[in-house]
Automatic annotation (TrEMBL), chain A:
Protein name (database record): Carbohydrate ABC transporter permease
TM helices/strands, residue ranges: 37-59, 101-122, 134-155, 186-206, 227-249, 255-278, 290-312
Organism this protein belongs to: Tenggerimyces flavus
Gene3D superfamilies linked to this entry: MetI-like (1.10.3720.10)
Bilayer topology: Multi-pass membrane protein
From TrEMBL, chain B:
Species of origin: Tenggerimyces flavus
Name under which the protein is recorded: Carbohydrate ABC transporter permease
Segments forming domain ABC transmembrane type-1: 74-264
SUPFAM superfamilies tied to this protein: MetI-like (SSF161098)
Membrane-crossing segments per the record: 12-32, 78-97, 109-133, 145-164, 185-207, 243-263
Gene3D superfamilies with a match to the protein in the record: MetI-like
């Protein structure tokens, strides 16, 4: 790469307008070389970004995770102390792990099923479907800060809209975000509200399912349920995989809603202390950069392992059309 | 599946569609109407579905709220989203074109590395990047939020590359024979052909930046420099009881996006469908 960059200073970027044409062979070589040079120049910003804002930070995070580092003073090597503290001496770590696992385990499958159902509904051949599609997508436009604040109002325990309605029809009225056992479900409901993006991904997938296959199955006597399970779902499985991986990655990293509803303390009673909130608190509240880095390394590994497990399992359940199983 | 649905089925479908739509729209409705109520009407039983009287005076009150300098923060948001969008569109299209159309040693490895970075949680990158900008004395400014975006974004590079790949090479070969430089080919021939994709990138980048909360929370220190998302949070943290004003402020933060969406809907929905299929 360096040699190609150096070559740039020797030859001019623009091709000479006139001049005697070089021999065919020589000209071909210059073209090839010029193309390489242009390729490197075009991608140079990203090469710099990969080095400065990806490779360096990842390596530095790993390094910091073995140090005690408050930014003001140079990092001090402490070996595995941060990891030891995390696993043996920080009850908040386990609380955050549990909270994040709870959130992911419920919101991801629920989100998948719901967005698939919504996509099936949008796939109805109904008049004005474009208008409905817009309405389904609208929540994605609300900034997470706004969505959380509006939900805090609507789910206000005493006289919020939701509890007033529930009371009106004689149903129990939970304390929602004020109640430690309801705060996470409330955040999950909030995450389900903005399912528009994955819904549209499913919808795009549904449109790809060939009508001819569904019709063939119908002729063979398969009812709607069987057609769905044996034709639509297998054909949709690559899209399910995509939404599942994105859902897991996103839910592991939920921050804004939990932080706004519960602050850095994860109120009430640590119930909204998500893993990323814990990292934020360690890094930017207590400036324990070493400890926060160790936490983020573990998050990285967790996301990696879960993603790999999903991809590995996908060999069994994802069906790629035109490829023999 | 066989012929048009019966009338009963069609009506049933619309009932389902309307019911689900209402769930999605209700929080917006509640936000907008609450912004024009007084606080007792917001939390009243029975529910006050429509503000009576409509308190238009809430709007100037939100705009002049101490600690929430709306116009200042609006400008910050526009500046932040605008700069990031410009940076992302320019750099990502350049890089994507390089990956799609120019052969150079190490290209494939580099491209695989690019796609792999999508798997890295942003958080593991945040801490050293913060330290880096801290050392450079740039904490409290928009530089840490904007500069990296001028070097490209992995996801949009990936997306745009797919678009460039669909353009036949004959076009650029012909221009090359005519003596056009690589940059000119990119700028005058290739870029106009992927305009719809550029619009998708621009709209998504704008939306993502407008929504961004974590970045400004970490890097910005002065309330006067906050974008709306962070300003609204500070506003909420101070005042938990004045719901009408908070709903008004929330509406003001959201409305510019709804307007943007109204104008760019086609690109939005197409973009989502595309990312879904390509992903």
């Amino acid at each position: 790469m360096t040699s190609a960059v150096r070559a740039d200073s020797q030859s001019s970027h623009r091709s000479p307008a006139g001049g005697s044409p070089p021999s065919r062979r020589g000209r071909g070589l210059t073209l090839r070389r010029r193309e390489s040079l242009a390729g490197v120049l075009f991608t140079l910003p990203w090469i710099l970004s990969l080095i400065a804002f990806t490779a360096y930070p990842v390596l530095a995070s790993v390094f910091y995770s073995f140090t005690e580092y408050s930014v003001v003073q140079p990092p001090e090597w402490v070996g595995l102390a941060n990891y030891e503290r995390m696993f043996t001496n920080d009850p908040q770590f386990w609380i955050a792990v549990q909270n994040s696992a709870y959130y992911a385990l419920i919101s991801v499958p629920l989100g998948l099923v719901m967005s698939l159902v919504l996509a099936l509904i949008l796939n109805f051949g109904a008049k004005g479907i474009g208008f409905y599609r817009t309405l389904f997508y609208l929540p994605v436009l609300a900034p997470p800060v706004v969505a959380t604040i509006v939900f805090m109002l609507m789910f206000s325990p005493d006289s919020g809209l939701v509890n007033t309605i529930l009371r009106g029809v004689g149903l129990p009225t939970p304390g929602w975000l004020d109640d430690p056992s309801w705060s996470k479900p409330t955040l999950i409901i909030l995450s389900l509200w903005a399912l528009g993006a994955s819904t549209l991904v499913f919808l795009a997938g549904l449109k790809e399912v060939p009508m001819s296959l569904l019709e063939a199955a119908a002729i063979d006597g398969a009812g709607p349920v069987r057609r769905f399970w044996h034709v639509t779902i297998p054909l949709l499985s690559p899209v399910i995989l995509f939404n599942l991986v994105m859902g897991v990655i996103n839910s592991f990293q939920v921050f804004t809603s939990a932080f706004i509803a519960g602050g850095t303390a994860g109120e009430p009673l640590d119930s909204t202390l998500m893993y990323v909130v814990l990292i934020y608190r360690s890094a930017f509240r207590y400036f324990a950069m070493g400890y926060a880095s160790a936490l983020s390394v573990i998050l990285f590994l967790a996301v990696l392992v879960v993603t790999l497990l999903i991809f590995w399992s996908s060999k069994v359940w994802v069906f790629y059309a035109g490829r023999d199983q | 599946m066989n012929g048009p649905p019966s009338r009963a089925v069609a009506v049933g479908r619309h009932v389902i569609l309307i019911a689900v739509s209402l769930l999605f729209v209700l929080p917006f409705y509640w936000m907008l109407t609450s912004a024009l109520k007084d606080d007792t009407q917001i939390l009243s039983s029975p529910i006050t579905w429509w503000p009576d009287p409509i308190r238009w005076e809430n709007i100037p009150q939100v705009l002049n709220y101490p600690g929430f300098p709306f116009l200042r923060m609006l400008w910050n948001s526009v500046f932040y989203s605008g700069m990031v969008t410009i940076g992302t569109v320019i750099s990502s299209s350049l890089v994507a074109y390089g990956f799609a159309k120019l052969r150079f040693p190490g290209r494939n490895v580099l491209f695989i590395a690019t796609v792999a970075t999508l798997m890295i949680p942003p958080l593991i990158i945040f801490i050293p990047t913060y330290v880096l900008f801290k050392v450079m004395g740039l904490i409290g400014s928009y530089a840490p939020l904007i500069i990296p975006q001028f070097l490209g974004s992995a996801f949009f590079i990936f997306l745009l590359r797919q678009f460039f790949m669909t353009i036949p090479n004959e076009l650029s070969d012909a221009a090359r024979v005519d003596g056009a430089g690589e940059f000119r080919i990119f700028w005058q021939i290739m870029l106009p052909l992927v305009k719809p994709a550029l619009a998708v990138v621009a709209v998504f980048t704008w939306l993502g930046t407008w929504h961004d909360f974590f970045g400004p929370l970490i890097y910005l220190t002065e309330p006067d420099s906050y974008p709306l998302s962070l300003g609204l949070f500070a506003f909420q943290a101070q005042r938990t009881t004045e719901w009408a004003l908070m709903m008004g402020a929330s509406a003001l933060v959201t409305l510019p996006l709804i307007v943007l969406f109204a104008f760019t809907q086609r690109y939005f929905l197409r973009g989502i469908a595309l990312t879904g299929i390509k992903g």
